[in-house]
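Practice problem: predict the structure.
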Amino acid sequence: MIYCISDIHGCYDEFMELLKKINFNENDTLYVMGDVVDRGPKPIETLQFIMQTPNVHFLIGNHEQMMMDYYKRKIDGLLNWNSRNGNKPTKKQFNKLEKTEKTKILRFLEECPYYFSINVNDKKFLLVHAGIDTRVPIDKQKKYDMVWLREEFILTKGLEDRICIFGHTPTKYIRNSSDCSVWFDNKYKDKICIDSGCAYGGALAALRLDDMKIFYVKSYNN
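Answer:
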């Protein structure tokens, strides 16, 4: 089975519960769509689990981008990576690591893609953290757009030939309500947001692409 999860944000315990709930095993494939770090209590532990699990594939979110920019160039605030964006747990845990492990993590992130284009049961999907500029070919997208876009992507028509699955914007903010369930674009039928706001007291969601079934684990931060 093939699954997507986004915006874990250090909620490692909920992540482990969700993997148990879907009976995730070596025959499955999981795509984690960015924003593993920051906000929640165990960001580095979550990232290390992903690095150590061969059938988990990771793409970059804006929080990983900010982390890389900070540690590569030591410019705090270049992309707002500060306490307002929940970086304290990540900094605290990362700075305690041995130099070799720090290097390993940063090298892993630098080698991760910004999107995946996959086919599941004859359906085509584009997996990206935040969105894309639909006027631009996929291979010409700006990294900034793929990790930071919101309304300019969510409110416009997507791609003709595939469904875009994304995170970044908690679904309750898309709906402007308390409903944090996975959001389907009922207007254009071409987008699905799976950020159920676990770090904000919502839930962590897994979307199974084989049959589009959704699994949830409620946030422990309630």
